[in-house]
Design goal:
Radius of gyration of chain B: 18 Å
Distance between the termini of chain B: 20 Å
Largest sheet of chain A: none
Distance between the termini of chain A: 40 Å
Number of strands of chain B: 10
Structural class of chain B: alpha/beta
Strand order of the largest sheet of chain B: 6-7-8-3-9-10
Radius of gyration of chain A: 26 Å
Number of helices of chain A: 17
Oligomer: heterodimer
Chain lengths: 397, 249
């Protein structure tokens, strides 16, 4: 007589259960848990106490505008807020295309809104800024709702909007054509970091892919050029390349071209640098494609460019997303070197603030603050990459 | 055996030699295949049978001799190669489906980008083919979610979508679990009845007896014997053929 075996009862995972199972299961585990907790407490006690009592956070509060937008003229702040709104709208639309089915009001939505409103109320900023931040929050929700509409599906419209947004944002930040011009000397803080990082990331990616493809080309000149480019750039430190970019880029352009703006020179150097590393990452992906894929594609009659675009690149890039995003995260942080060239991005503006006699010695507060900002953006990129990988894996498996 | 063979040659191979470095893989192979014929190539591994059929769509090149496919001589001229490949479908031992595309997209990719069909038309044809090979309900799935037999049937549909004049099969069932071999062979048997030229490298003796017009035995880069399935399996002439058959029958 066969008896029906029931599947094993899985214990419900409450925090208490989890702690009992993972932290206190055996006597030595319990001992290790207690010791680790004590070590964590001892180490962080000093830091947390400092944060809450001794640190003089006035330096951050007083200089918030400098940290975020550098020496941008106060009267023109509305243009930057508008840029934030545009980016928030497009981000919300893009997010919704990834998760079209989730309803608008969920627990995480309420949590996020609560945190957002708490931030708006608590942060020591003036009323107008609070209103602008509120507008950004509302636009994000509006974008979520709007993104569910049919004509946004497929992502083509959204990609077009992103491409369209770049010249608009550039115009808003820089001025000209009806808006008061703001010279790049006055750009600074987080805004400059984000601008330099985004443009460099955006430019270095296609350049890196082209270099990787060129490295495998059957034409010797193309192959050698790509190989030399990659090996020379990878052999130089980024600081060296930034210096070269500032000093020598002009000589590579036809005589008579107006002197390129410092920001453009810096972004060009960052892009050229990053492209070399990206090329090697992508090359790894290209080599992981089984030959059978290429054979199947060619035997269907696809010509070599189509095989690369439709079959090889989608698979190769998917395989190296972690490496590529890691490269981008590094690039984001490498923008801190721009401080050495008079471009006062986040680290540069911090040094300027430190030079102010009222705030001498406030290193710790300032560097903890910008450290947290860097971390938020880098972790955000990491998180986005994990989501992207999960989405693509779901489709492939 | 089918009665759809014509007398028009579609593949003419004359004295083909191929070297892999020092290794002489094809030692002067000559073969003429007519439109509508079903030809099965058999032989021990390393005999050059896969290499030989891969010269028909230029996946392998050759150093001496002449191969003419559908009236076009296969040379190193690039433009020719893509044109020939549209008319020669190929099914691989490892299926080689595109994992990042759905089953439907796998099938419609080439017709859309090479034959320039509008998407709707390509999808209609694809759905018809999926029904023909018996897996219409898998259209939206990804290759990773299908069994080996289903994947190979998708591969066959993918090649058929280009409406080629001939189909090459390179050991299509060798990588399949035994219970799935039947479903793929059934599809190939049905395909044979439509009059398309098929050249199949396989070890499936039953299939050859049922469907082939001609069986060709290759060994060490040469064609040793060719005959109708009856003659080949019951009255082989050459010693090497007899030895091979004693090992597989």
């Amino acid at each position: 007589m066969t008896s029906q075996l029931k599947p094993p009862i899985i214990e419900k995972l409450t925090p208490g259960n989890w702690a009992k199972k993972n932290l206190f299961s055996t006597w030595y585990n319990t001992l290790l848990t207690i010791i680790s907790l004590w070590v964590i407490f001892a180490v962080s006690k000093g830091f947390i106490l400092w944060v809450l009592t001794q640190a003089k956070w006035k330096v951050i509060e007083a200089n918030l505008p400098l940290f975020f937008v550098g020496r941008y003229p106060r009267d023109e702040y509305w243009r930057l807020w508008l840029c934030l709104d545009i980016i928030t709208l497009l981000s919300a639309l893009t997010w919704t295309t990834f998760y079209p089915k989730t309803p608008l009001v969920t627990r995480s939505f309420l949590l996020r809104s609560a945190i957002g409103i708490a931030a708006i109320v608590i942060f020591p900023i003036d009323l107008i800024s609070r209103l602008w931040l509120l507008s950004a929050m509302l636009i994000f929700t509006g974008g979520n709702w709007l993104g569910k509409m049919r004509f946004f599906r497929g992502g083509k419209l959204i990609s077009f909007l992103w491409v369209l947004s770049f010249p608009i944002i550039l115009w808003l930040i820089q001025g000209g054509l009806g808006l008061k011009e703001v010279s790049t000397n006055d750009w600074g803080g987080l805004m400059l970091t984000l601008f330099a990082a985004s443009v460099s990331i955006f430019l270095s990616f296609p350049l890196g892919v082209l270099l990787a493809l060129g490295r495998q080309s059957s034409l010797p000149i193309v192959r050698w050029f790509c190989l030399l480019y990659i090996e020379i750039i990878r052999g130089l430190p980024l600081i060296g390349i930034l210096f070269l970019g500032q000093v020598m880029l002009q000589f590579f352009l036809p005589p008579g071209t107006p002197k390129l703006d410092r920001v453009i020179r810096a972004i060009a150097s960052l892009s050229l640098f990053s492209a070399a590393y990206l090329a090697e990452n992508v090359r790894g992906g290209l080599q992981s494609i089984p030959r059978g894929q290429i054979e199947a594609a060619r035997s269907l009659g696809l010509n070599p460019p189509l095989v690369i675009i439709l079959i090889i690149l989608p698979q190769a890039l998917r395989a190296v997303i972690p490496a590529i995003v890691g490269q981008f995260i590094g690039l984001f942080k490498d923008t801190s070197l721009l401080a050495l060239f008079g471009l006062l991005e986040l680290v540069g503006i911090s040094k300027t603030i430190l030079a102010n006699p009222s705030y001498i010695g406030r290193y710790a507060e300032i560097y903890v603050f910008i450290g947290v900002i860097y971390w938020i953006f880098c972790y955000g990129m990491s998180l986005a990459s994990r989501h992207l990988e999960k989405q693509l894996d779901i489709r492939q498996k | 055996m089918n009665n759809l063979t014509t007398n028009t040659p579609i593949i003419i191979a004359e004295n083909v030699h191929k070297w892999y470095g020092q290794f002489h893989a094809l030692r002067g192979v000559s073969l003429t295949i007519n439109q509508g014929e079903i030809v099965v190539l058999m032989g021990p591994s390393g005999s050059g049978k896969s290499t030989f059929i891969r010269t028909f769509n230029a996946l392998e090149d050759y150093q001496q001799g002449k191969i003419t496919v559908d009236g076009i001589e296969i040379s190193h001229d690039l433009r020719n190669i893509d044109t020939i490949r549209r008319e020669v479908g190929m099914v691989f031992q490892q299926f080689n489906l595109f994992p990042h595309l759905s089953v439907l997209d796998n099938i419609t990719l080439a017709p859309i980008w090479v034959r320039k069909w509008p998407k709707k038309h390509a999808e209609e044809v694809a759905m018809q083919l999926l029904e023909r090979v018996g897996i219409l309900e898998q259209a939206k799935k990804y290759p990773g979610q299908l069994s080996g037999g289903q994947q190979q049937r998708v591969a066959i549909a993918r090649s058929l979508a280009m409406q080629p004049k001939m189909m090459l099969f390179d050991e299509p069932t060798s990588a399949l679990d035994p219970e799935m071999v039947r479903e793929v062979l059934d599809v190939m048997g049905n395909l044979a009845k439509t009059g398309i030229t098929m050249i199949i490298v396989t070890h499936e003796v039953g299939f050859a007896k049922e469907v082939a017009d001609r069986v060709i035995f290759m060994d060490s880069g040469l064609i040793v014997e060719e005959a109708t399935p009856d003659q080949f399996f019951q009255n082989p002439k050459e010693e090497r053929t007899k030895k091979f058959l004693s090992q597989i029958l």
